[in-house]
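hiii so my PI (J.) wants the whole complex modelled not just the main chain, which honestly fair. so below is everything: three entries, each one labled with what it is. i double checked the lines twice but i was tired so who knows lol
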Amino acid sequence: MYLRNALRAATAMTLVATTAAHADTLTIATVNNGDMIRMQGYTDNFTEATGIDVEWVTLEENVLRQRVTTDITTKGGQFDIMTIGMYETPIWGANGWLVPLDGLSAEYDVDDILPAMRGGLSNDGTLYAAPFYGESSMVMYRTDLMEQAGMEMPDAPTWQFIREAAAAMTDRDNDINGICLRGKAGWGEGGAFITVTANSFGARWFDEDWKPQFDQPEWNDALTFFVDMMNESGPAGYATNGFNENLSLFQQGKCGMWIDATVAASFVTNPDDSTVADKVGFALAPNSEGVDKRSNWLWAWALAIPAGTEQADSAKQFIEWATSKDYIELVAENEGWANVPPGARTSLYENPNYQEVPFAQKTLESILSADPNNPTVKPVPYVGIQFAAIPEFAGIATQVSQEFSAVYAGQQTVEEALAKAQAFTSEEMEAAGY
Amino acid sequence: MATQHSRSVARLMMAPAVVLLLGWMLVPLTMTLYFSFKKYLPLRGGDLGWVGFDNYVRFVSSSSFWPAVQATLVIVGGVLAITVVLGILLAMLLDQPMWGQGVVRILVIAPFFVMPTVSALVWKNMFMDPVNGLFAHLWRFFGAEPISWLSEASMPSIVMIVSWQWLPFATLILLTAIQSLDSEQLEAAEMDGAPPLKRFYHIILPHLGRAITIVILIQTIFLLSIFAEIFVTTGGAFGTRTLTYLIFQRVLESQNVGLGSAGGVYAIILANIVAIFLMRIVGKNLDA
Amino acid sequence: MARAVTTQRKTFNTALAWIVGLLIFFPILWTILTSFKTEAQAIASPPIFLNFDWTLENYAIVQERSDYMRFLWNSVIIAGGSTILGVIIAVPAAWAMAFVPSKRTKDILLWMLSTKMLPAVGVLYPIYLLFIRLGLLDSRAGLVVVLMLINLPIIVWMLYTYFREIPGEILEAARMDGATLKEEILYVLTPMAIPGIASTVLLNFILAWNEAFWTLNLTAVNAAPLTAFIASYSSPEGLFFAKLSAASTMAIAPILILGWFSQKQLVRGLTFGAVK
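here's the output for the full assembly
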């Protein structure tokens, strides 16, 4: 009795609280990346224009994933907009958990979104999330160190060249590592990087019958090459380095080369944060000699509306604002063209102001050459370059990448890790009913 | 002394606490049991029917299961050993007369007030980072190659971080116990010419028995479920995947609620085995 | 402490204890110091200890990005609410166990403790679904209840051990004088148990304040406490040691200050019946 009354009272209290808060306030879950934090700063412009208040829930990437996935799968309805990626969008969209982004206004110009991005954020031709920014990956290198080493970076290098250049640039006494790459466990961290590296060595995650391929020689080649190169020229403890760790190493001038997300280009060339801002060159992500696939991925952080929110219209309004051409102009005006969210719209790359930004061209080339429907040399049954767009992938790839990280840390051999990865992935795929 | 009347009053007074905890135990437990017999994959449409003991079999037969149990026991055991031993030493030190005892005590108990997330973040980034961490600076200063703590020495690092958080708790309880020690007894032993080590073994340690049991009991309860420290530092890589973390990976990363729930049931069983074991000891000690 | 101690030995003890104390405290000190540096100084090699340009810039940035006071207030409400509610429920239970013990008292006590061993991650789904059904997601009330339930066994146990130390004769005497049960608890028992209750409250306030799984997973905006606040500062892009330090300092400062001011109460009561 007492318990039920107490619960009822508590429920009533919170119902009041939640409805009050939901009247004309959007709750947006987002990741604590630089561009999103910048967007939070401009939220007032949106509120002034529309009268819609915005509450931000900013979380670190792993916490965010955990939080929004729990909420969407249980239909918890805690958020009106969620920041998700190219991996989640098609899966969630197919499950009917996201509001389709149709009927967008003419001035929004949905056809202006880069086709690769639009494709990756759609399911069966319906757009489910609007890209806030998009990225591929490319080589960022120190022009001064390259020169010192007496080498010249081609536009489209091979892994073999990268390894040679890395060895030449490495100067351990002066704390300079020839190359910095992700080794951190996690499907979106080191997992993504080793997957694209493997792609460029001719490997693939699954064959056409969804059989894991870690027992194939291409994986062994790729992983062995990666480990050898990093041991020669990589930073100490790279097994725990992810995007952020490498970014700060590169900004401190401790890396000769860094192959990572194209969005990093604006951070490493920003003189406020980077000690090497004026000495950075760009090249396409490498491939192994004779393999017709480069190691560049495709990703977008996008805004989506969970089905069931009572504020789908206001949410759509916000998404239109945040991913519009006008927003890009707004940021350009206040912070310069180099700091606008990249990789989402064709018109940005046609803008003469933006074409002057040093990394614009290579970013676009990288994005355009990434093909999620055709990610590997041999055919695969999945869509996605650095991931396979099936619900099981995140869990599997995180554990597989943990085995790889143990190799990077010198705790097991390449062969052991691949054998474990093969066994574990087979186990999971079987459990999932493939 | 207890009359029939006072017995029923007592039962009434215990009722709210007992009923609430019973609910808190039974409701999630029932739901977990329910899910554990289901193929429940939220990303594949949710409830896909009953599967009997499939999830249970799969969870234990997975190659990650025994290493996870082992990792759990290593962390719990390691932290307990460190905090109890250092706790006794520290408590004995703090019991000595000195200047500024109050301030020192404040310094020593401070880590207990720090959130696990914050302490994991601070240790990971500002101390154990192999490039910018303070340890790396220190190592380089002495001409050594910096250690990549969280990959090369992942388990000791996590045990260290967690021990740092729990050392104050152990120290405080042990200190209170030491302070209650009859100092005349100690003095008498000293007069008799008993060497310090002997005094420690025959007088101090037996006196601390009860306090040590309590420290072990309470800490074990909390340590079995540590999560933030691993989530923030290694994410379960490098052999630090505990049972709790394995369940997290099943439920949230793999989105397999059925399998994770079966893991949850195993974790409850493990916890209860440890609990019964501990309580046997504590029960005896509490009676004494 | 009647032992005669030479000054020499006292000096040695003092020096040793201070070194150990500072060593244990150092990570916190370092975090606080770093929070006043610029990002570049925070990673400078060799590290800078004191002679840097103290700046409040990081605090300004953190405050501009997230409304600290709101998170703080939620933390206070949730930790305070769950502790108070827990004590209210636990006092009668602990009283009954201590003064009208039966054969099963110890079993009940140990059973209560065993409910704490339920692994939170394993029951996230059930609890989340339950919270949706009850409309408790992102509400302080829901968190107050959950944290109260998590800490209730500890509260009961601590209070039980304090109550047991109170000699039964005093209660008998009060009863002889015609005190009712209510009066007995209110006027006789409670005053004697104040130190115990105080340290119970303190310890559980700290535990609730630092709880980071439920508070993070069951909240969004309205009920998000400092544990959620910190989750937006862990590993962002670019250099972040100084900002992380500032956010960390802000998250732990209130409880650290509270802990320091009340450490006497905490220390006095934190025995769990370890001392007889």
